[in-house]
Amino acid sequence: VRVAPADLGADGSSRRVFLLTYRDISQTRRIDRMRSDFVANASHELRTPLASLRGFIETLEGPARNDPKAQEKFFGIMHEQVTRMSRLVDDLLSLSRLELKSHIAPEDTVDLIPLLGHVRDSLVPLARELDVTISLDVPEAPVFVQGDRDELIEVFENLIENACKYGQEGKKVDVRLTGGEGKQTEVMVTDYGPGIPAEHVPRITERFYRVNVEASRSKKGTGLGLAIVKHILTRHRARLLIHSEVGKGTVFTVRF
Ligand code: ADP
User: Fold this and answer.
1) CA angle centred on 137, ends 133 and 142, rounded to 5°
2) How far is the CA of 161 from the centre of ligand 1 (A)?
3) Fewest CB within 10 A of the end CB: N or C in the chain?
4) Has the ipTM of the complex gone over 0.90?
5) Percent of the chain scored above 70 by pLDDT?
């Protein structure tokens, strides 16, 4: 609250008027807080692999100097850490690029049928590794949406990859597209894994939010995937709906 005394003065009176200006800064504070949490989280995520790399370098320069077996093992782990850091930096860059253009709607028109086919094909090797089968169910006629091809690929790659990774024990992932002829255009990605406890569902699209940090790390997650999905969908005026039942599985629906 700002109090600004001002003299009226016009009629020669000596009355003073006080102007009170109220500004609700709770939203600004919340955004500042989120921003600094984000920087702290990102720094922490990068510092962990860096500390481990430093440890390995010191060991390779010292105790493991003449131990080829240990060297091979340590180089393998260092390679994994560097890959993890690169993935994180790529995701951070994606997020900041998306933030810059969040208010600009995409201009191109994309047919979702070949796009989803492309995403499925690119994820077959991972699915095979995890012993998961991805099924794709699409209508006959093309389903066009206004969108950016690369960004939509990123959305469906993230959702289908998560379904395979976190729903691995369900052994299958169903991807279903509906739309065309006045129907609502939707893509549903269903897994039959452990599901997400209800209290976590509203928060899993937040940056770095994970239901289980260790499980996410072991599955090569950065904790940014769904935040990127949400940003892209906002720009596409599309919504992400999450329906999950513990012990049964999860459905992520993208509604255009
Ligand atoms: P990550 O890089 O950790 O996978 P995401 O932003 O993609 O990050 O997902 C956030 C968290 O949401 C994951 O760490 C996981 O705990 C949870 N999650 C996402 N998809 C699923 C799913 N299909 N089933 C269960 N949990 C999921």
Assistant:
1) 140
2) 10
3) N
4) yes
5) 94
